[in-house]
Amino acid sequence: MSGERVCAGCGRRITGYYVQTLGRDWHPDCFRCAACGKPIEGQFAEHNGAVYHPRCHQERFGLRCAVCGGLIEGQYVNYEGRAYHPDCHKQQFGKRCAVCGEYIEGQYIQTFWGEMYCARHAVEYPECYICQRPVCKRLTGGGKQYQDGRVVCLLCRKQAVDDQEQARAIMRQVQAQMVRYDLDTRQVPIPLEMVPLTRLTADGMAGPLARLQGQTLKQIATRGSQEVGRTIEAILVLGGLPPTYLENVLAHELGHVWLFVQRIADLPEDVEEGLCNLFAYLLHQKKTSPEAQHCIHLLEENPDPVYCSRRTGPAASASR
Ligand SMILES: [Zn+2]
Ligand SMILES: [Zn+2]
Ligand SMILES: [Zn+2]
Ligand SMILES: [Zn+2]
Ligand SMILES: [Zn+2]
Ligand SMILES: [Zn+2]
To answer: Contact at 8 Å (CB) between 179 and 222?
Structure first.
C-alpha cells in the first residue's frame, strides 16, 4: 500500500509513533546510534547515512591531537597538516629557555654553543667574557668576576689557566705546532706574563676594543741610528683563559714575534693583525673541539682588524 511507512532500521511496517529524519522513517526503538547501538533520543549527528549520539559521533570522528590522541575541543594548533592541543604542541615542539627554563615565546637568542634563551635575559645577566653565554645559575652554574672586571662563567672558569708555568707549557706547545707552518720562534727568548685586562688596556690603546687578550712588547736596540739587536720584552696574555683560548692568543702573539724577528718590517698594522689572526686560525682549523670552533668564530666576527695591536712605536722602542 502506498503511504505505508516502513522503518529504515528494521525494514518492518510502522504503526504508531515514529521518528522521521533524513527523509526516512524509523521505529523510535530502531533509531539507534551506529557507534554504541543505544537508542537516540533528542539530538543526533549524521555521518555517511548513519546516525550517532553527538558524543559518540565526536568520539569516532572528532578532531584528535597528534600528540596525545585526545579529542580536541575548542582551540587547537594546526601544524604541518596535523592538529594539536596547544599545550601538547608546546611540549612536543616548544623550545625551553636555557636561562629561565620556560618555553620560549617571542624573541630568542641562540648561543654559539646551541642553547637558546629568551632575548630579554641578554640584558638581565652579564655575558661571559670568554664563551659569550649569559652568566646565570641554570646555564653556566653561575660565574665569577675577576678583579679586572671581566665576568667569566663557571663552565669557562673550570678550565681557566692561572698558573704561569702551565701557560708557558702551553706556549711551548703552540710554538711546536707553528713550526709546521714554518713559523719558528723556538729560539727566541720570550718572557711570558699573565696579566689582568687592566694591564692590556692601559696606555696607548686606540679606542675601546672588543676582545683584547694579549700583547707583544718588542724592543729594538740601537747604537746611534744603527739597529744592534731585537728583543721581545714580553708577551702579555690575559690570566684566567681556558687553554684553547690561551692557545689562540699565543698563536696570534707569536705571529707578531715571528714577523718582528724575521724583520718583516713596516707592514700596515691591519695587514700584520690580519696575518696574526691567520696564524691563530691555522692553529685551530683542524681541531674539532667546540672551543676551537668558537675561537675561529671570534676571529671571523671580529669587527676590528687591529683589535689587539699596541705596538710600541719606533721612538718608544728604540732604547738601550
Ligand atoms: Zn524498526
Ligand atoms: Zn551512541
Ligand atoms: Zn593533546
Ligand atoms: Zn627565558
Ligand atoms: Zn663562559
Ligand atoms: Zn695583534
So the answer is: no
